[in-house]
Design a protein that fits this description.
- The strands form six sheets. Strands 4, 5, 6, 7 and 8 form a five-stranded antiparallel sheet that branches. Strands 13, 14, 15, 16 and 17 form a five-stranded antiparallel sheet that branches.
- The chain contains six helices and 26 strands.
- It folds into two domains: about 35 residues, no CATH class; about 325 residues, TolB, C-terminal domain (Neuraminidase, 6 Propeller), CATH 2.120.10.30.
- The longest helix is centred in the N-terminal third of the chain and has 11 residues.
- By secondary structure, it is mainly β.
């Protein structure tokens, strides 16, 4: 009679190491295997280990906004896909699996470590939501406040205190406030530059990068006119979330070229980047991407790409371009065209251009550095 082999017992450390490589979807399923695995998935130390591994696999978050009457957004559809899949395929089929509805209305603030920050609002008040698309968990209403005026928000992670923070810049009161998950109160940032007197904020989008929030603003000490705008008109305000102090970062110095539209900033290839559109005589309108190779060092700006809009087969006046990702081989760049709900694949070696559209939706909002995580909506 054959004696059965004893069961193979794996060390706990090895089990944790193997599980940390799995996707969030699989980990959520494996919670039912045993009590220890269920508690492991919600363990803060394991969440950080898993997040470190996930950072190797970049994703693009595609959020479609659906508007009701009076341009109030009451429904969003969230999709996130590996950037490798986006570059490798000319046609992407999207699903409507992640849907959020709000009786009043909400708008998007930003994404960080797998969390998406939303601001809900009604006629009387505003509040914060935090949503994890991978685990499909949505926080309760947090940080409720009264503000009837237009505000600018930013969302990011403070590495010093290991918490998530939201910054609110109010045009009416001209002050800056900060909300930390766990504190559940808004505090003033007294050292932050005046919202209206010192600068004019270009848009409501804030870029999170390396523990900082970054806004592109128009300098008030230089004469600015939209018909005669140049690079020197603009500066980046960078707020360190740990020290809650700010610095000003100059854009790469131009040669006096007239900008056709306002510049933008974004995160691309693990660098803070800025994009320009300007005219260059016989060469036609140009789209340029600059990378800050060493964050915070203005002298480290390096031009990554310059390409004409005729080559891209679009017009700079009806398109808002954003670099999304680069293929692993380094030869194919994907650009997002927000106004048209499409993407452009540009081959850097052959100058070949392929224009494609997503299968559904037009009002897209991109986060091109999304990482799947188990981070809970309470910021722990």
């Amino acid at each position: 009679m054959q004696v059965p082999s004893p069961p193979v017992l794996l060390p706990d450390d090895l089990i944790i190491e193997v599980l940390s490589f799995l996707t969030v979807k699989l980990l959520m399923r494996f919670r039912c295997v045993c009590k220890s695995w269920n508690s492991l998935v919600s363990n803060p130390k394991f969440i950080k280990i898993h997040q470190k591994k996930s950072e190797r696999n970049k994703n693009l978050v595609l959020i479609e906004k659906e508007y009701s009457s009076f341009l109030v957004c009451k429904r969003i559809i969230v999709n996130y896909l590996p950037t490798s899949r986006l570059v490798g395929n000319s046609l992407i089929t999207l699903t409507n699996n992640h849907i959020l509805n709000e009786e009043d209305g909400f708008f998007l603030v930003g994404s960080c470590n797998g969390l998406v920050c939303l601001v809900g609002y009604s006629d009387l008040e505003k509040w914060l939501y935090f949503y994890n698309p991978a685990t499909r968990t949505l926080s309760k209403k947090l940080g409720t406040f009264t503000d009837k005026y237009v505000s600018i928000f930013g969302f990011g992670y403070d590495t010093l205190t290991d918490t998530y923070k939201v910054v609110n810049l109010c045009r009416k009161s001209r002050d800056a406030r900060i909300f930390s998950l766990g504190d559940s109160i808004w505090r003033s940032i007294p050292s932050f530059p005046d919202v209206t007197d010192s600068f004019e904020y270009l848009c409501y989008t804030c870029v999170y990068f390396s523990g900082t929030l970054n806004w592109l603003v128009i300098r008030k000490d230089i004469t600015y006119h939209w018909q005669n705008r140049v690079v020197e008109n603009f500066v980046i305000i960078s707020l360190d979330l740990g020290t809650e102090t700010y610095t000003q970062l100059l854009l790469p110095r131009g040669s006096g070229e007239k900008l056709l539209v306002d510049p933008t900033i974004c995160v691309f290839m693990d660098c803070l980047c800025t994009c320009f559109s300007h005219a260059e005589g016989y060469m036609g309108d140009q789209f340029v991407i600059w990378k800050m190779m060493k964050f915070g060092v203005e002298e480290s700006w390096s031009q990554f790409l310059k390409i004409s809009y005729p080559t891209l087969q679009i017009s700079c006046f009806d398109s808002s371009l954003q670099p999304l990702c680069l293929s692993e081989s380094g030869d194919t760049l994907m650009l997002g065209v927000r106004k048209k709900g499409q993407k452009i694949l540009y081959n850097l070696r052959t100058n070949n251009v392929v224009q494609t559209k997503f299968t559904v939706g037009k009002n897209w909002f991109y986060f091109n550095h999304y990482v799947e995580s188990l981070v809970s909506t309470n910021g722990q």
